[in-house]
Amino acid sequence: MECKLIRPADLDEALAAREQYTHDALPIAGGQSLLVMMRNRLVAPAALIDLEPIEALRGVEVSSAGISIGAMNTCRQLIASPVLGEEVGVLPVAARQVSSTAVRNLGTIGGNVCHNEPGADLPPALLALNARAAVRRRANAREVPLAEFFTGYFETVLEPDEILCRIDIEHPPAGAAGVYLKHAISPEDLAMVGVAAVVVPDGKQTGGVAEVRIGIGGAAPVPLRAARTEAALKGAVLDAETARAAGETAATEVDPPSDPHAGADYRRKMVSVFVRRALLQAARQIEENGHGAA
Amino acid sequence: MADDYRVIGTPVVRPDGAEMISGQAVYGPDVTQPGMLWGKILRSPLPHARIRSIDVEKARALPGVTVITARDVPDRRYGYAIEDEQIFAVDKVRYVGEPVAAAAAPDEERALEALSLITVDYEELPAVFTAAEAARDGAPLVHDELGPARSVYLASWNPVHGTNIIHQASHHRGDVDAALARADYVFEDTFHASQIHHSYMEPHATLAAARSNAVTVWTCSQEVFQLRTLLAGLFAIPESRMRVINTKVGGGFGGKIEPRLEPVAVALSVHSRKPVKIVMTRAEEFTAAAGSTPATVTVKTGVTKDGTLTVRDIDFLWDTGAHAEGLPPSNRAMKDGNGPYRVHDLRISSTLVYTNKMRGTQLRGLGVPEGAFAIESQMDMIAERLGMDPLELRLKNILEEGDINSIDDVVQSIGLRECLVSVAKEIGWGEPKPANVGRGLSVIAKSPTTHSSISSAYVQFNEDGSAQVLVGASEIGQGMSVVMCQIAAEVLGLPVEAVGIASADTGTTPYDRGTFSSRVTFYTGMAVKLAAEDARKQLLEVASRMVEIPQDDLAAAEERVVSPAHPELSLPFREVLERAHSYERPILGRGTYGGKGDYPTLPHKAQRKEYVPGWKYAAQAVEAEIDEETGIVRVRRIASAHDVGKSLNPVSVDGQIIGGVVMGLGYALHERLQFDQGRIVNPSFMDYKIPSSQEIPEIKPIAVEVPLPEGPFGAKGIGELAIVGIAPAIGNAIHEVLGVRLKELPLHPERVLDAVESQRKRNGG
Questions:
Q1: ipTM score
Q2: CATH number of domain containing B572
Q3: What is the dihedral of CA B175, B177, B178, B184, to 10 degrees?
Q4: Contact (CB, 8 A) for A7 and A16
Q5: SS3 call for B241
Q6: Would you call B762 exposed, middle or buried from its count of C-beta atoms within 10 A (0-12, 13-18, 19+)?
Q7: Does the pLDDT value for residue B641 go beyond 70?
Q8: Are residues B648 and B666 in the same domain?
Q9: Fewest CB within 10 A of the end CB: N or C in chain B?
């Protein structure tokens, strides 16, 4: 099996290579999923476009508009970034739970999102943070809300001549709390169910919430936002009973797969358990600190 | 036994440890030969199908490629227990993964390309996937006729011809029906064990070189001599021209006992006239090598009101898949099925059945885990019903010195009570704990291997006074090598560093039955001890002539010949060996063990004629935290106490216990090969979960030492039992917290939750 490695010097060269090869080449970031798939002969690209040398895909930038995370940031870099910890804490929390140390050292946020493997840890957190994907092709650029980015099982909106360059996140509302809970047999596994919740307090009464955003992974062909659950919680007071009811609503919003790790029914039940737990944990965070850290 | 040994009982770190962890050790997949080709195997995609035709012409047209099918290899059946297998499928395939053809080429890609050019025309046949289904009248036959059995595993073979039932055995003592009728309480429960995989790190790898009229095979095997006999017979050449050399083995666990790649590699080498190497992919390991032999076990137990076990009736139904390698565990159940309990009336029956699935074979514990899950789960059910403490119920009924065991032998050298008491203490049995934390116990035993379990050893002195051990047993990672060196060093008066070892090469090392069934420390260890004693005797003979002191007054100590009667004597071994090698004869000690009459020190006259010493006993205890909402079981602590007779090397003993416990943890909680119409759907470590370092709890290994007179320095085997009792102990802990009894392995969160919900429904909640 011959496979050519293309090492573009910058983003323009990479985009040119994408345009030239389209379906025949795959971009490689950390390689933590792609190389395994190639070894198992699930994919056999004629060429790999190495994104490693591209400066434009690196770094974390903070501006008044929000936070912009280069697609080549590794999980390790997300975990180590003080600004992410401060601004969008739920993301490094989720990054910490990705697979093993070795994978976190090499695997990137862009790769994690583009691979779109059910049970990946970063998508639920990014969904709950209202993240957007900044996508480029040679001729133009577009911005896709992450909620529209994932289209199917291992599929995204990304076209074969495009590259995901950055993940952009608006500053979360003041005092918001963020929680990510992963349900897995071993911490190194993909999540049977992963739930991220960002809870924005209303600042008026204990448990009162202005807004709740819930991202769920592993419980449908794509990671998703629990829209009906979120709507039901708008303006509610988050207590044990509302959290329980929210969990039950969320369980009706998913479409879980059955695989060797767990059956669909079990996953659905776990959505209900972990949505409830995540909401209560976020509420506790707000109550204890007077505010949260999303 | 006085404990004044120099080397025995001291923690010796294995000398090959550094090369193993630094990647320098040469395992099966690392071996190469000049001009070597790579072999790949085309496997059946169907569980049961007639082969109408195989077209290999296109594949053979590729340059440099050799392609073979059943037509190109000897038309002989083979198999260690039942001869029910051929190198390639003939006429029909019986499981997804069965070899149909093979190709050898200068690289793996070309070999795979050749396989892709082979077309096989199959006609699908109805298939059977469960033992219960397969045992029914009129079920499709996996083997149209049963092959001949080899007596090595079987005193008597009892198949049901014209069915899928390969063997039925039963063991009967007393009047079971009457005893059940008399019992105050009778418990009857059915348990299911799942099929797990051995999950050794090193995949199967074989390199075969057929040159002129001799064949050399490098392979990772637990039994090189049996393998040589089989290959020589299969290819009709004398054993003198079939040499099997063991590579370093990266884990065996029973999965590298029977032949796998060797017959195909030899056949490819014979046809291509080049050395051919085959390495299994991990997916092949999961789908085509073998797993454990799962069983459904029904246990009926009668007890009196005071908690005395009086009678047991146990029925095993084993699913061996497409080949009868499940025969050893199914036969062992006769002896081990009852566990270490005193029961007067006993009936054990065992049925082994073919199905259209990848074979089950031997796996660490050899049928004991399947039975123990049933027995040790039911013991807690009995305790609950009688209102007794499970610890007390076990203490009341376990075997003690002098009792009669399940196979009518008098029990000797048993440290089981001490094991049980020590794990209970270690786990904090009876002490307060949070409501979501449970504790569970198990007691377990395994009978000694009985069929021709013979080992032999050479111990020779080198010219510089150091020594060399040669044994035919396989080092499979368990640390046999260091223990054998310790035994020789102890006897010879050498430091352990001055003893080297070579093992498992049919061209150079003496005969050994191999590494299985916790037998090497006991049998090979005794052979080494006897060989070392022989070498020491020969050394002192030469020394005696040199110093003119009677041999009986001489001793070997600290690399010198000394004499209590002549304190001034201090003759270095080196000088004796200079003389031996130049003027007398090199010193070669010889030892064998395990044959008839090798157990003269039997303390009991009552034993049957075929008595073999060396039962293994252990007790295990777990403490687990259970999440009622998710069904997740987090094991926090495990204590595992083993009656090892004598701990020859405490580091190795701890390693064996900890390794076995971890494997038992996977077996208990998560591991299972999952099938869909005979096809395995989780053939990777992504989807087949073995414990990772992050779920391994604190493990406390405990060695109890009740010496066995027949073992080397009193030692018994330690390799297997630690896997056995973890599943029932965890099941018992789950019951303590949730009040539900899980009767099917693994104790997966989904199952735990289902059990909780069924209970809730039963209780009308």
A1: 0.93
A2: 3.30.365.10
A3: 120
A4: no
A5: helix
A6: exposed
A7: yes
A8: yes
A9: C
Distance CA B253, CA B22 (A): 23
Q: What pLDDT, on a 0 to 100 scale, did the predictor assign at position A211?
A: 95
Residue A33: per-residue pLDDT: 95
B630 with A270: Cβ contact below 8 A: yes
CB contact under 8 A, B691 and A186: yes
Q: What is the CATH number of the domain that holds B95?
A: 3.90.1170.50
Q: Record the pTM.
A: 0.96
Domain spanning A4-50, CATH architecture: 2-Layer Sandwich (3.30)
Question: A185, B688: Cβ pair inside 8 Å?
Answer: no
Contacts with B, A 34-73, CB within 8 Å: 40
Contacts of B686 in chain A (CB under 8 A): 190
Taking the C-alpha atoms of residue A253 and residue A228, their distance in angstroms, rounded to an integer, is 7
Q: Within 13 Å of residue B399, how many CA atoms lie on the same side as its CB?
A: 32
**Both B223 and B235 in a single domain?**
yes
CATH 3.30.465.10 domain span(s) along chain A: 55-169
Banded model confidence at residue B765, pLDDT cuts 50, 70, 90: low
Give how far Cα A105 sits from Cα of A75, A93, A97, A99, Å.
Answer: 6, 15, 12, 10
The correct CATH number of A177-289 out of 3.30.390.50, 3.30.300.180, 1.20.59.10, 3.30.110.40 is 3.30.390.50
For A2-42, write each residue's pLDDT tens digit. 899 999 999 999 999 999 999 999 999 999 999 999 988 89
Written out in words, the top-level CATH class of the domain with range A55-169 is alpha beta
- Residue from the list A185, A190, A269 with its beta carbon closest to the beta carbon of B753: A269
* Together in a domain, B278 and B223: yes
Whether B1 shows a pLDDT value over 50: the answer reads: no
